[in-house]
Design a protein that fits this description.
Layout lengths: L8 H8 L14 H12 L4 E2 L1 H14 L2 H5 L2 E12 L2 E13 L3 E6 L7 E6 L2 E6 L2 E4 L2 H12 L2 H6 L8 E10 L2 E9 L5 E7 L5 E9 L6 E14 L2 E11 L2 E13 L14
Parallel strand pairs: 1-8
Antiparallel strand pairs: 2-3, 2-14, 3-4, 4-5, 5-6, 6-7, 8-9, 9-10, 10-11, 11-12, 12-13, 13-14
């Protein structure tokens, strides 16, 4: 239960940034008009409430300060439980290598003769399964790009510094039986993000973000919960991550290994035959 109801971030954005930015909320997704409005928003200065900035500063320090801000790669291993279109895949082992901000190699079903390997490199995406090499489905690519854009690392190292962003203190709330401070963020593209941080140690507990589906035009709510932090090379690293889409659990990740700034081979984020 939120103890203080702040002014709506969308309303505040329309007050601070009058037309054409405010009018874009009624504009249809896609098209030249929307692109022009988003370009206008990206040229606006960012607005950060001082209280929100103080919370962000404490959160960045709690995560590891310069060590968190400047690492480039993250290698993790463990088990993942996923649900896709109502089908439960169960627990499988995984190995993940990420080069921030937008490169990923994710292999799951380790221990089998031919695990499935997903490659993401910017807008390009492939999959290698027992049948061979194929391109990922458009919905797979879109979902990864959205969740990657608002991941813990990219949100706090990139998104909050983008032109046109609006950031404000949204009071307090209880999440997973923890008292949290809440930061509300509206991006230049009008995605709405809420960052919940533990009121005691200021580590992120949840990131919730509402994003318009590029294919359907409908807005969808994503929620990522972070828990079981461990100090890895001076960086507080969540070893348990749970992902939800429109209130339905989609995946649960249990890491048992993490390492920062490993060096990957050239062309590591595209399939060998590409």
């Amino acid at each position: 239960m939120t103890t203080r109801a702040p002014i709506s971030a969308v309303l505040l954005l329309s007050i601070l940034y009058p037309s054409p930015v405010a009018s874009s909320f009624s504009a249809p997704a896609g098209g030249r008009a929307r692109m022009a409005l988003l370009q206008a928003a990206s040229n606006l200065p960012s607005r950060v409430d001082p209280k929100a900035q103080e919370i962000l500063d404490r959160t960045l320090q709690a995560l590891g300060g310069p060590a968190f801000l400047h690492f480039r790669t993250l290698t993790t291993r463990g088990r993942v439980f996923s649900i896709d279109d109502g089908a439960t895949s169960g627990f499988v082992t995984f190995e993940s290598e990420v080069e921030y901000p937008d490169k990923r190699r994710f292999a799951y079903g380790m221990g089998k003769k031919k695990p499935i390997v997903l490659f993401n490199n910017g807008d390009r995406a492939w999959e290698i399964d027992p049948m061979g090499l194929t391109h990922q489905l458009p919905e797979q690519v879109e979902r990864w790009k959205i969740t990657n854009r608002y991941s813990l690392e990219n949100l706090l190292r990139l998104r909050i510094h983008e032109p046109g962003v609006l950031i404000q203190d949204a009071g307090t709330d209880f999440v997973d039986n923890l008292a949290t401070r809440v930061i509300e963020i509206v991006t230049a593209s009008h995605d709405e993000v809420k960052l919940y941080v533990n009121q005691k140690d200021f580590l992120p507990v949840r990131i919730a973000y509402t994003v318009r589906n590029a294919r359907t035009g409908e807005r969808q709510e994503y929620v990522d919960s972070y828990a079981d932090y461990r100090n890895i090379q001076g960086i507080q690293t969540p070893m348990h991550i749970t992902r939800y889409l429109d209130e339905e659990r989609q995946a649960e990740i249990f890491r048992n290994f993490a390492r920062y700034d490993e060096i990957y081979p050239a062309n590591y984020f595209q399939p060998p035959t590409e």
